[in-house]
Amino acid sequence: MPPTAFLLHFTMKIRVVFALLLLGLGHLVPVRAVDPVSLKLETVVLDPGHGGKDAGAVSKDNKTKEKDLALKIARKVRDKINEGCPGVKVVLTRDKDVFIPLLDRAEIANRNKANLFISIHINSIKKPGPSGFSAHILGESKNKNNDVFGLNMSVSQRENAVVQFEDDYSVKYQGFDPSDPASAIVFNLIQSAYYEQSLLFAGMMDASIAGTKLVRRGVSQDNFYVLWRTAMPSVLLECGFISNPDDLSYLRSEKGIDEIAQAIYEGFMQFKAQYESVEGTVQASAPRYGIQVFASSEPDKKIKGDYPKKVIKVGRYYKYIVYPGDDWAVVRENWKKVKKNYPDSFLVEIDGDKVTICRK
Ligand SMILES: [Zn+2]
Q1: CATH number, domain 3-277, options 3.40.50.1580, 3.40.50.620, 1.10.287.3510, 3.40.630.40
Q2: Among 30-39, 156-165, 232-241, where is mean pLDDT lowest?
Q3: Beta-carbon neighbours within 5 Å of ion ligand 1
Q4: How many Å lie between the centroid of ligand 1 and the Cα of residue 159?
């Protein structure tokens, strides 16, 4: 088993328990005693941003609202997970056009003992130029003037501003003032226990979105109310700009929504495989399947796409294999993505240094 994967799970668990014991907050969030050998991604919570009286960002012509796009994408992702991964329970924080306070969204995820929380949003800015997809995790913003993308207002400022739709928000969010280190520390500690995993999923999402028309804006960390109280790896996705004409027409098309949902689904599948790899590697110490993209006499050729890869020397040649893994279904799913860059790629079975074409 890769010791890093085991340690990641182990240290994560210890840090959560420690943080909660230290602060006497065992009652605040459910902490599961997880046996690393049986770690499974059983439940994912999809959180379509905004809803009801809170429309989120609105297109210039007033015809398209962030709340509707976010719900459409979330439903599509749910359907794809239900179909591709029937064993996984998918919970939506809302499945209709209703208003839900930010804290309640985290509460839904905690109550359902989710293993992953994905908050889905659409970006917006006054200028029509900026476009693309970005993944965000909770953390201290590196950009002190809060101008994350060289824009006027940071994504977190805009997304946090929705609390003003909540009745007693000034009381409820009093403890969450990001500028007040004393009040922020408890919740930062809880979510920081999942920092590596949140970052891992955000990175997978960033790579996965390359299969869509949306430009990659990368991963950033910032203070998001909605991610603060979740006790699991949590990521907020901004799926394009409603203020950019190209992104908007893509988001208005069925194809656009489907491709974005597919990218989120693929990112999810990849994360699931990694999340469960502790169990997988107990039974098998090496990946059994993969996708061969090419063979070469050179050992370190560059490959197109950010795929996890493994190079196996067979005779005089090096076989370049991407998405090496134990889960046949996951490898086959990833193949769809790889074929865009490598139409001639094929599935292989790996047994030590033997690589054979897989026809099952
Ligand atoms: Zn939003």
Answers
A1: 3.40.630.40
A2: 30-39
A3: 49, 56, 121, 159
A4: 5
